[in-house]
Amino acid sequence: MKIAERYIVLASHNQRMNARLFRLVSSLDVASQTEDKGAFFGSILGTLNHIIFGNHFLLTRVRALINRPSPLDAIPPQWDFQPDKQYGASVAELATICADIDQAVCEFVSTLDERDLGKETDDAIPLWALLDQLFQHQTHHRGQATTLLSQCGVDYPSFADVIGTLQGESAPF
Description:
Blueprint: H1 3-26, H2 30-34, H3 44-66, H4 91-109, H5 114-118, H6 127-151, H7 162-166
Helix pairs in contact: 1-4, 1-6, 3-4, 3-6
InterPro entries: DinB (IPR007837), DinB/YfiT-like (IPR034660)
Protein name: Damage-inducible protein DinB
Pfam family, one: DinB
């Protein structure tokens, strides 16, 4: 496997896990979605908004670095560090935003080659590191969201992983 192909797998897995998370969160009533549970971003909705912020913040830097037309162009830029920024007032709004971002990322990474991944920002951060951070950030905060789901009595089985994505498995829920 070429290194660039790794990002196709990670983008696909990320898209799959985000869709799964939003399906489960959507099964909750609005009060449960918005209740401040003492998490870093308060509620499940706050945590989902932060995931979207991280996407915008990191993908703004990716777009500037790659400096060519791409599927990421549809994502509004986010240069300022505003981790509490609200991108949507409802889970349905955020699910649509997240699905659009995930699709753009899947399309974008399929255009990359090894040279692209080695390109660096002015402060010497390579594209591969920005992409790794993008996926790790989402994984980290999905973990926080699953804890909040557990507190609401929602089971979030953890067996769906990158290996399952490689094998073409679909989540059974």
